[in-house]
Amino acid sequence: MPTSPNADVPSPAPHDPRHPTWWVSTTYFAEGFPYALVNNVAEVMFKELGAGLQAIGLTAIFHLPWNLKFLWAPVLDHHETKRRFMLGCEIAVIGILALLMLLGGDIPLWLASIAFVLLAFVAATHDVAIDGFYLEALDRDGQSRFVGLRAAAYRGAVLLASGPLLVLADLVGWRATWAAAALVMVVLLAYHWMFLPATERRREPFVRWLRALARPRVLIAVGLVLAVVVLDHSLAFVRPVVARLRDAIGTIPGVGGLGLSEWIGLSLLVAVGVAVASIGRLRRLLAAHDSRYARAFLDLLEQPRMGRALALILLFRTGESFLMKMRQPFLRDACGMDLATYGMINGTLGFAATLVATLVGGWLIAKHGLRRWLWPMVLAQNVPNLLYAVLAASDDPSALGNAWVGAVVIVEDIGAGFGTAVFLVYIMRCCDPRHKATHMAVLTAIMSIGFTLAGMASGFLVEWLGGFALFFGLTFVATIPSMVLLPFVPFLDPRPDDGPPRDGATQSGSD
Prior knowledge:
It contains 25 helices and no strands. It is mainly alpha-helical.
């Protein structure tokens, strides 16, 4: 399997540090690690710093760069190389972690918020670079073959950040924790600097894009935003208006108790609805705006039956997203499973089950094609939701014991692994080779929006439905729209341009 666009260059041996096994593992570990720091560790740190529930809820805002990363993804397609962006982002992550280490455990909340916002934007950009590099460096068969490995490496990074790293914070404090996190990124940066293959010609220097942004209006706007964020007293004139608006909204039945994270979710839902309703107008607008930036999005929308593909990507993991948010509360409250047992089943046995299923799923798709394994793997992902419904409907789920309950968890993790393999391969099939990083960013952002919306609604639905039994039944119902779409979506078969890149398109070169 070629790992370079140049067919004359032999593939490296499996023990060679330049072999895809090694750099796929390390790049996706490097992608998952900062994500977990922002989306899992930040809320724990805020709690330790004495933040209230509202402030902890505000940490949901840190996820927005992953929802919006498609806005700046075209910059990565038209400037420098993905490898350079990847290395630059890793240097920036290390710098931010070093700042957190120097500030220690007594950092003010407003300063911690700024640090995590910066880390989120850098990490989201890092994701775009890594996904684009993966599509550039591997041919279609390689992308399918290594999809399980990339998913496993990503999840392993999340487990490291949300497990051992938090134990370290409890034992020795946040300063040592951030030092350890920075050390992990330094090791990854060193490997990538030395062994990551160069698969692209260098494009337009990034500094030209920065100069284009350095206009007086842009600088003034950025300065005002920073002033509002940094200077707490500058918000004084806003607070009375916000208080009155909150009181007015509180009088509206059904929405008075919504927090900021829920309003963000509703805003995303409205935005998605508006985008779907106006996709034709958006296509015409982009066509009228003649630029490389607009062309990247237009080429995505102009692909045949792309509306169906976007709907599938938005809905594919809806049922899983509902379930994942409420799984641990159900196992703890209804099934009587303590945190240590849950951690052992989910973090050890469940992780191994997901890893094996994703690796096997990727291998089967690479060997026999996506269409052959589509329905078996989709059903493996969705049907286990009904097991949770049966479990919740029993008279006393806790009487079944941890062995039976744990078996349901592991079966669901296996199904999630197969579903991940299908989903990642399908998303890669939807990317136009001319705008790989941009299209991957758009599609994963759409996936992220669906995941965010379902997760935010899950708690409300449990209460509204009167318990977990109907809720878990609803999580299976939520999978039906995506399964109805499956026979009608494009890209289930390999595209004509999915083979190895043509000579001269993106040759290896100095980077």
